[in-house]
Amino acid sequence: MGGILIQNILSEGIDIARSAAELILQPMRDSRLLIKWLIQNSFEIFDGEIVKENDKFYEIIWTRYKQNCYDEKSIDMINEIFYYKNSPAVLEYIDKKISEYSGIIKHLENYTPKNKERIGECNKELMHYKEAKTWLSLNVEQ
Fold first, then answer.
1. Domain residues for 33?
2. Is the pTM of this model over 0.70?
3. Name one GO molecular function term (predicted).
């Protein structure tokens, strides 16, 4: 289940989601969109992990409702929860994402106006993962 579908399910049952002691979410994609939605809807992200199993990566997000707990600037700080743990999968995951987004951009090089927007989105994500890799090299012992 992707982050957008999880977001839609939580939106439809927002009162139930807010009353839960905690939620453990595992989006297969679009995790950053889900995280942004969680923050905008006053959910505290108190833990997260990237796990690799059988050559697949899984992002796991632990969250709970906490009224007025974050502002928009907190979205990027959430990355520290995932990256600071420095599990063996984190750097490999970041490298995979950099390669993935670079490949998409290269594939869309001869873009049409429709592809231009997708290239912009991919460039934004690519920069995010490159910054995360730099942050890791400066802040976490290897």
1. 1-85
2. yes
3. tRNA (adenine(22)-N1)-methyltransferase activity
